[in-house]
């Protein structure tokens, strides 16, 4: 009697619309799963076309090419004698569904459409797909001829059903369905389903991984069973980093854990588990058994195949493991680094250029690139042939082997300190020392000639010369002169990114990195089209508080002692004249609020969905020990006034790594107007009434 089943799941670094590469990675994962004895292989959500196709889902080409890849998978010898569960879009009766296609030995067993679509935050599935609302209902799906020719089938089951093999029963969930309050695994488990599968396209957010793990383990803790989760990994073409964490759980405990951050394009987990453990676990839960006796049964698709062997008494099974979570500092070190690596190799550029100011933000960005170099060297050392091949293409050397992160950093990373007459020697020294310690190719230049030329053109045309406020100028003049410096730096950054390698006799160009943090973006404390305008920004979704902790982590783990003085220095833009050779301008004084306050405003505005009045009501309690209601009112008004005045800057925000759930990214995560009535007259009047009452 068969009792032990061997199942496989994976995390794949798929790329939107890269059908050829996606097919190769799927086949590789099937081969690895089979080599480890798996009889069932689960892949990520929409793995055939890649999850992030967005409006390309509207195109018939995406459907056509997905079926072409499916035909290749059905024909492949690799997919024989193993149940394969793959994800792709399917058009059924002129309605587009996000589906799992489950097949065995050139026969499609079931097409299972997604029931609960993800439509919050970064997700827009309802824009492209329709949920399957016919619970426990199956229809005939007429296969396209390209598939009929391979399978010999004209129609296959399409809908909400489960698979009944010779030895067990499997039910499917797709990503969001695990998070829904009425998850399908509840009713499926009551109906005798013993193995639940979940194909995800779940992206990284700081401090989120434990939520997914807890949901998976709790799914089987209450109901018993085996839960298998697959997830996408890597950057598949936009701001998100899908963070793997493939896992297998049984009866509330994790038995196999995949990596959250890795440069491996294909990672496969396989576990051998005893079905009798599920049955005995369920047998003593009387409340479950009473509910099961009344459950409405699922349609079952019979499969003449077993996940176990007839004689498997001596087969060893997997034991529970303790899930190891990364600290937030480790997440910052690894997640954005892996995202940068995917972006670099897939954009076919020769490296990065970063304007390095000697402050915390640009230094944190530099440390993430250095961490990326560490990850690359480690992957090559561990025998990752894909990473080595990509490295050689990037550096244009077919014999090169990266062994030292600093040496590799020198080849692919250029840092540039752009001094002006308002820059201090301290920041220049800090930038230079950090560049030396991480190994980047460092450039020092002075922008004063360009700034004077731009201001000179204005003076020649208007007959007026603007002055800084310390020399008697107005606030308008002061701000305009700061903006000119900032924008000149952006122009020079792109010039040097295009031509620096040319001057060194090296082919290719560099991607410009931005380094504005999430709090500055929220407040609008940046010049539109300055160095915050770049190709990509690895820290744009990370708070100043987290970046400071990350800098401390780098001091301890990478021995970057140059960061100590950077940590202790007050953040400054260095755009106003020095006083006695020392910096007089600081970020928090300019903003009229601290970074700690900004982080709180951001979480209340986005996560707590608080407008000015609600934010005031929450903060008078949160800050009752340190602020009077009138002071709280003043702070809230100032934040919303500054936020609304500067919101237009978010429309041109550099694409940033999404890491924080209060990100102000205007592209699709934080949808707001960018022309506000900045007086907030009605809202502020409500606050004033409360202040007077208090």
Automatic annotation (TrEMBL):
GO terms for molecular function: ATP binding; glutaminase activity; NAD+ synthase (glutamine-hydrolyzing) activity. Keywords: ATP-binding, Ligase, NAD, Nucleotide-binding. CDD domains: GAT_Gln-NAD-synth (cd07570), NAD_synthase (cd00553). Residues 5-275 form the CN hydrolase domain. One of its GO terms (biological process) is 'de novo' NAD+ biosynthetic process from L-tryptophan. GO terms for cellular component: cytosol. It holds the Pfam family NAD_synthase. Pathway: Cofactor biosynthesis; NAD(+) biosynthesis; NAD(+) from deamido-NAD(+) (L-Gln route): step 1/1. Its EC number is 6.3.5.1. InterPro entries: C-N_Hydrolase (IPR003010), C-N_Hydrolase_sf (IPR036526), Gln-dep_NAD_synthase (IPR014445), NAD/GMP_synthase (IPR022310), NAD_synthase (IPR003694), Rossmann-like_a/b/a_fold (IPR014729). It is an enzyme of class 6 (ligase). Homohexamer. In the C-terminal section; belongs to the NAD synthetase family. This is Glutamine-dependent NAD(+) synthetase. The lineage of its organism: Eukaryota, Metazoa, Chordata, Craniata, Vertebrata.
């Amino acid at each position: 009697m068969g009792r032990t089943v061997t199942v496989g799941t994976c995390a794949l670094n798929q790329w939107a619309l890269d059908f050829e590469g996606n097919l190769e990675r799927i086949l590789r994962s099937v081969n690895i799963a089979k080599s480890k004895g798996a009889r069932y292989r689960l892949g990520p959500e929409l793995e055939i076309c890649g999850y992030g196709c967005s409006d390309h889902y509207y195109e018939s080409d995406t459907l056509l090419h997905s079926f072409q890849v499916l035909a290749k998978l059905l024909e492949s010898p690799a997919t024989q004698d193993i149940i394969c569960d793959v994800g792709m879009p399917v058009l059924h009766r002129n309605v587009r569904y996000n589906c799992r296609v489950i097949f065995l030995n050139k026969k499609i067993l079931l097409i299972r459409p997604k029931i609960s679509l993800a439509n919050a935050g970064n997700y827009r599935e309802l824009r492209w797909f329709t949920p399957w609302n016919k619970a426990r209902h199956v229809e005939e799906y007429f296969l396209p001829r390209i598939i009929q020719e391979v399978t010999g089938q004209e129609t296959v089951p399409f809908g909400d059903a489960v698979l009944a093999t010779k030895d067990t029963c499997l039910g499917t969930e797709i990503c969001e369905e695990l998070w829904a309050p009425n998850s399908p695994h509840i009713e499926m488990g009551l109906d005798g389903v013993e193995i639940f599968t979940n194909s995800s396209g779940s992206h990284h957010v700081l401090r989120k991984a434990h939520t997914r793990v807890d949901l998976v383990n709790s799914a089987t803790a209450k109901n018993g069973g085996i839960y298998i989760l697959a997830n996408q990994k890597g950057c598949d073409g936009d701001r998100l980093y899908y963070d793997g964490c493939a896992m297998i759980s049984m009866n509330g405990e994790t038995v196999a854990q995949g990596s959250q951050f890795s440069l491996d394009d294909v990672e496969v987990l396989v576990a051998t588990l005893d079905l009798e453990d599920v049955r005995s676990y369920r047998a003593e839960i009387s409340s479950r058994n009473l509910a099961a006796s009344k459950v409405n049964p699922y349609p079952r698709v019979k499969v003449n195949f077993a996940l176990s062997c007839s004689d498997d008494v001596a087969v060893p099974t997997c034991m529970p493991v303790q899930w190891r979570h990364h600290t937030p500092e480790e997440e910052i070190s690894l997640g954005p680094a892996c995202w940068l690596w995917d972006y670099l190799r897939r954009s076919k550029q020769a490296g990065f250029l970063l304007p390095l100011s000697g402050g915390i933000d640009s230094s944190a960005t530099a440390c993430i690139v250095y961490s990326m170099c560490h990850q690359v060297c480690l992957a090559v050392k561990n025998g990752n042939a894909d990473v080595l091949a990509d490295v050689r293409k990037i550096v244009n050397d077919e014999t090169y082997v990266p062994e030292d992160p600093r040496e590799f950093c020198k080849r692919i990373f250029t840092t540039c300190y752009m001094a002006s007459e308002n820059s201090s020697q301290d920041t220049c020294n800090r930038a230079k020392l950090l560049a030396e310690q991480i190994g980047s190719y460092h450039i020092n230049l002075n922008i004063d000639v360009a700034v004077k030329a731009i201001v000179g053109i204005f003076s020649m045309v208007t007959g007026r010369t603007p002055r800084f406020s310390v020399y008697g100028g107005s606030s308008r003049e002061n701000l305009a002169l700061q903006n000119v410096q900032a924008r000149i730096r952006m122009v020079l950054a792109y010039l040097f990114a295009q031509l620096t390698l040319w001057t060194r006799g090296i082919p290719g160009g560099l991607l410009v990195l931005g380094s504005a943090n999430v709090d500055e973006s929220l407040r609008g404390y940046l010049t539109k089209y300055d160095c915050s305008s770049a190709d990509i920004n690895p820290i744009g979704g990370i708070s100043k508080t987290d970046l400071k902790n990350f800098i401390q982590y780098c001091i301890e783990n990478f021995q970057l002692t140059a960061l100590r003085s950077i940590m202790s220095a007050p953040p400054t833009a260095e755009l106003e004249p020095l006083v006695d050779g020392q910096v007089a301008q600081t970020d928090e004084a300019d903003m009229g609020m601290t970074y700690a306050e900004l982080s709180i405003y951001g979480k209340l505005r986005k996560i707590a969905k608080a407008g000015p009045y609600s934010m005031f009501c929450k903060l008078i309690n949160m800050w009752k020990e340190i602020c009077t209601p009138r002071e709280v009112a003043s702070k809230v008004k100032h934040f919303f006034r500054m936020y609304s005045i500067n919101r237009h800057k978010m429309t041109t925000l550099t694409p940033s790594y999404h890491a924080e759930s209060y990100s102000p990214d205007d592209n699709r995560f934080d949808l707001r107007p960018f022309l506000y009535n900045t007086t907030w007259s009605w809202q502020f009047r409500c606050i004033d009434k409360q202040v007077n009452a208090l």
